[in-house]
Amino acid sequence: MIDLHTHIIPQVDDGSKSLEMSIKMLELEVQNGVEQVMFTPHFMYDSNSEEKKEKIKAQYHLLISNCPELPLKTYLGAEIMYNENLYQRIENGNEVFTLANSKYLLVEFPFHSPHYRIVDKLYMMVTKGYKVILAHPERYLYLTMDDINEIKSCGILVQINTSSLLKDFGKEIYKRAITMMQNGFVDFVASDCHDLSIRKPNLKQVQKLLKKYHISNKIDL
Ligand SMILES: [Fe+2]
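^ thats the input. predicted complex w/ fe (ii) ion below
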């Protein structure tokens, strides 16, 4: 089982605050039955994105070189905030920050309704050969279930958060997450962990739901 969406790399975003915290988060992943962890720090294509990517890489190497022997496979990726720069890069055929250098691309969107149709933006990426994973659409309240159905029918994969299923974001987001599971819209459930308290690695807590809806959290990188 993989935890596909995590903020465990220290001091690169609003996730782990220290190397010690990162190591404890990884230990917690193991306790949750996770065998593979994808590191997905927040990332955006802007004027200093190359600098930020270098920092992420450096902190990633710092973490894995200081990690105790854990029965875990770790990979470097990113959670990319959609913007016009990302769209242009992909449309122009330039490289983007994917999951473990694969064709999988984890993309998030703003929490307020954007002026464009998400499905159109993601579908262009699909046509360019990317296996696009939409991060936590249950949290984008402006997306209806019909919108998510359309997104799915375009071959876009969907990842929802454990915390949505645990009602940490309230009743409405919980209901949306469950409806998405019932409709077969969910490809991955990930912790989107940021810390060791409110947003910690917690995949084990939704194990029954994963089983019920046949979500294996496996990925062929
Ligand atoms: Fe995230």
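The chain has a mean pLDDT of 97.
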